[in-house]
L-seryl-tRNA(Sec) selenium transferase
Amino acid sequence: MVDPRRHVPRTDAVLADPRLVAATETEGRAAVKAAVVATLQRVRDGSLKPDEVVGAVLAALPGGLRPVLNATGVVLHTNLGRAALSPAARAAVVEAAGHTDVELDLATGRRAKRGRTALAALQRAVPAAEDVHVVNNGAAALVLAATALAGGGREIIVSRGEMVEIGDGFRLPDLLESTGARLREVGTTNRTSAQDYERAIGPSTGFILKVHPSNFVVRGFTSAASVPELAALGTPVIADIGSGLLAPDPLLPGEPDAATTLTSGAALVIASGDKLLGGPQAGLLLGSAPLVNQLRRHPLARALRVDKLTLAALQATLTAPSTPTWDALRISPTALRQRTARVVALLTAAHVPVELVESSAVVGGGGAPEVTLPSWSLSLPSPYAAPLRTAPTPVLGRIDRGRLLLDLRCVPPESDPVLADMVIAVAGQAAPYTGPALPAGPAAPADPAPTSPAAPIGPAAIGPAAPIGPAAIGPAAPIGPAAIGPAAPANPAATSPAPTGPAAPTGPAPTGPVLAAGQGA
C-alpha cells in the first residue's frame, strides 16, 4: 500500500489550480496560501488524501462577508458598511434571530403593529415627531414619500442646487421620476430663494422637497431657502436630511438634525439609520401623523418594510448609552496618541519600520464634509497596503504622501494586538528595510491643541428620552484570530536585522489598488 504522505503536492502546484486562482482574486493570495499550507500539513499527517487538497482549501476559505479592521480614518466608510453596530445592537440581533414577537401582542395573543417597540423608541428619541415609520433604507423612504404624495404625475418642487447624485451612480432626479412624479426644478445651482418655490406652486404640486446635499458643497455667491421660509408657503415640506442626526450636535455644527427640522416646520423628515445614528441600514420617516400614516398604508410600504433583525438593532441603538460611531467621533487626541504609541512600541520591538505621526480623520458617509478630526496614526511603508488588505484579518488604511497610515480611531481597542500581529506578519514577508533609521521609541509628546476649530470634542445629546451619550460600551467581539499578546510579539518570519533607519523605504510600489477613503452618500 502506498503511503499518501509520500505524495504531498507542492504548494505552487496547488495554488496554480484554476479554482484557487479564482479564489485568490476575491480572497487574496495570502489567505489562500495560508489555507493551502495548513491543508498540506493535513496530508503529511495522513488525515487527508492528496487528491482532496483543493476541495479542502476551498472549504477552509472564509465565505461571504469578511470582518475587517477599519484603520482608514473615515468613521462612516461606505465601502466598509458605514456604522459598526454597538455591542447592544449585535446582541439584540442574535436574540431576535429566532422566533420573536415582532408582530404579536403577547398579552392578548392578537396581531400587533410590526416593530412597535422599535418605533416607540424612535419617537421617544425625537419628541417633535407625531408619528414615525421605518423602511429598509434612506432612498426607499424617499421613493415611498414621492410615490404616495406625488405619484401619478403630480409635481415635486426642488432646487437645482439640491439635485445630487447619492452614490454608486444613482441620481436623485432619476430616483424621483421612477415613481411617476414630475420634477419642478427651481432656482440655480448656487442660489435659490423662497420666491422661486412660491412661483412654482400650483394645483398639481405634491410637496416641496428640501435635500441636504451631503458632501456636495458650493461656496461663494450662494443662498438657499430655509425650512421655516418654505413651511410658510403653505405646501407640505419634506426634508431629506440624509445622515440620521436626531438632535443638534456641537461637534457637527453644519449638519441638519431631525428635531430642529421638524420644529422649523417640515411636515416630514427622512434620514438614514446607518450613518450618524450609528445603527443598522434603515430609512427613517418622522413627522405629522396623517402623512406618516398615509405612507404606512401605501401598498409600496409592504415591499419596503424592514425585517425583525433591523428592528431589533435599531431599538438597541436608540436605547444604548453609546455607539461605536459616537465613540470614534469623540475620542480625544491625547487618548488616541497614547494608544497608537503603544502599538508603535510593539511593532518597533518586532523590527517593523514604523512611525507615530499626526494625522486627521473625517466623518464620512456624506456627513459633515467640512469637519476634520485631529488624529494620530501609524505610518508604515506603502507596499504594506496590499498584503494587509488580504491578511487573515484584513486591515484597511489609506495612502498619504507615499506612506500607509493606519488610524486606530475606528479599530476596537481590544483588536489592537490583532492589528499588530497582521502588520508584523506582513513585515516578516517584506523585503528587508534598507532606508535610514527610524526613531526607536515613540514616546507620547505633550498633547497639542486641536487643529480643527470646526470639530470640538465633547458630548452632545442625541435625543431627550433616548440619548446616545458618551458612556463606555461593553467589549465587542474581537475581529479576526486570537491576538498574540504584547508580551510575546515575536516576528517568526523576520530575518532582517533591526532597522537602522527613518525615511520611506525604497521598495516597490503597492501591487494592488488602494481602497479609497471616500465619503459616499
